[in-house]
Write a structure and sequence with these properties.
The chain has 232 residues and is α+β, with helices and mostly antiparallel strands. The protein has helices at residues 5-9, 18-25, 29-38, 43-72, 81-126, 131-140, 167-175, 197-207; strands at residues 144-148, 155-159, 164-165, 179-181, 191-195. It is 56% helix and 9% strand.
Length: 232
């Protein structure tokens, strides 16, 4: 039996909040839906995915009525009272669908914003940079450009100090939100690379010296120690 074309075209509609949901949870939407079905998500994420599914369904409704309205007004049908009545009904249905989408979007945001805030609050302090990443961030802090060789297509990153950084390292730092490229420049001419606020905070945290222990003055002869040794 052939598959339903509407379902084959896509099992979910793309919502305007997809990229924020993915950034906050660290998973793409399809993976989140799969994990939800398997019952492996923690409660805040599980509820967020449930609401996101409702938003996706609402987006599907808006898209359907938009396409129907475009079809009715395409000039394919004779303009008569029956067509005008159908257009009026479709416009009303589109308004209702848009209202449902707006309501479900507010529900998603109400669950999403605390997750985003928690991720933002913990990322700079809890990020542990490797020695290589720390050195790369430090070099990139002075300015750098990503270039693509016109003949070989090879990508390379050169910093203002002349240091070369592997493209894979740049990709890793970019995916972690530590650096950003100015994509308004063509890559063959050089795309400027700069640290994000998160990257600067992570670099500052990793370079902050550990607190030195407070020296304990030697005890005077015959004086009792300030703390008693633990008894075994």
């Amino acid at each position: 039996m052939p598959a339903d074309p509407a379902r084959a075209a896509g099992r979910r509609a793309v919502s305007p909040l997809d990229h924020r949901v993915e950034a906050a949870t660290g998973y793409d939407i399809d993976t989140l839906w799969t994990y939800r079905d398997r019952g492996v998500l923690v409660e805040p994420h599980a509820e967020l995915v449930d609401r996101h599914r409702e938003l996706s369904a609402a987006q599907t409704g808006v898209t359907f009525h938009l396409r129907l309205l475009a079809h009715l007004t395409s000039g394919e049908f004779p303009v008569d009272y029956a067509l005008l009545d159908r257009i009026d009904r479709t416009v009303d249905q589109l308004k209702d669908a848009a209202g449902v989408r707006e309501t479900t979007a507010r529900w998603v945001l109400a669950l999403l914003e605390p997750i985003e805030a928690a991720a933002t609050a913990t990322t700079p302090d809890e990020r542990t940079l490797s020695g290589d990443d720390q050195a790369a961030l430090l070099a990139l802090a002075g300015g750098a450009k990503l270039r693509e060789h016109l003949l070989t297509g090879r990508m390379s990153v050169t910093t203002a100090s002349g240091t070369r950084i592997p493209h894979t390292t740049l990709q890793r730092l970019e995916e972690a939100g530590l650096v950003v490229r100015d994509t308004s420049h063509p890559v063959h001419a050089g795309q400027p690379v700069a640290l994000t606020d998160t990257g600067r905070a992570a670099l500052l945290t990793s370079r902050r010296p550990a607190a030195s222990p407070v020296p304990v003055p030697p005890a005077r002869p015959g004086a009792w120690p300030s703390t008693s040794p633990q008894r075994r």
